[in-house]
Design brief:
With 377 residues, the chain is α/β, with parallel strands linked by helices. The chain contains nine helices and 16 strands. The strands form three sheets. Strands 8-7-6-5-4-3-16 form a seven-stranded mixed sheet. The chain is globular and about 50 Å long.
Length: 377
Amino acid sequence: MAGIRSAGRLVAGGLALAAAGWALRDVPAELGGKAEGERLARVHRSPQFRDGAFHNPVPAALVAAGSAPGLIADLLRDRDLRRPAAPVPLVATPTVPQSPHGVSAVWYGHASTLVEIEGRRVLFDPVWSDRVSPLQLVGPRRMHPLPVPLAALPNVDAVVISHDHYDHLDRATVRALTATQTAPFLVPLGIGAHLERWNVPADRIVELDWEEDATVAGLRFTATAARHFSGRTLRRNDTLWGSWVVAGAERRVFYAGDSGYFDGYARIGAAHGPFDLTLMPIGAYSPSWPDIHMNPEEAVAAHLDLGGKVLLPVHWATFDLALHPWAEPVDRLWQEAKAKDVRLAIPRPGDRVDTDDAVQVSPWWELTRGPDPVRTH
């Protein structure tokens, strides 16, 4: 009997090692590629690149001085509040149709958003993996299912990436879109090396520095500044990060990517705005990293700086990447928007909004709070 148990443990151990080996085999590819040749030369010529790295327009610290010691304790505190208490309501088939001449958008969760502008479709920072990590066994895991499978997406005209962090640039999603779509990928400088390693054809990669532009499917895409950082390994800032302006004949959309608040939003608005729609990050903020992620009030301020008409919040609800309660970003956003008379569009994941409609915000996130606590009298 002891021999059988020992054999069983050996088999189980062998299977565990095999599973770990299978999971680890893709990690080198997940880390991406390194710029070489003309791509590297373009990186070195960038006004944003000096001393071996890209730099922010305004200096930014990854973690505020003196805040690191308390972060570990904070990570272990109130963990249940950082997840929805009930299932997030999803929409598989939106009732609102695509706007043929205006601007509509379908938000799939976190930053992944399909923007429809003057009949063209632009997919921003698509992430369809279960975890945002180089290893699908560990790392932040999706807190709600995907509203639709990637194969159910319509044909898109462009895929736009803001930077190379795992919650914005996902290898599995890129590979699937390469196989199932024909659209080019528009990326900041250096990120083309990742895509080439993942077998994206060179003629489908468009790399831009800040304030460079390219025209795809009749839309003008301009890479603009952001206050953030980059890196898929311990090495930082060897690829550029950014925000994006998408301009049609009459309509304009701004996507902020990841960014702390800075005075560059007013300059972007003056140069490229006003905007029918802004996609602004509202989650994963903290006093410990105020320079690289904005809070909801700052997102409203940036939207106003940009000359935005409708604000659609992104970068919340899907992955636990900070210490605040799950619904706090949208609660704070709603209060600030009412105070500043800002129009919001807050769709359920998978739902579509049309910016020309009178956007009616339904507080669907209230459904995720679970039952009211028991009161004693």
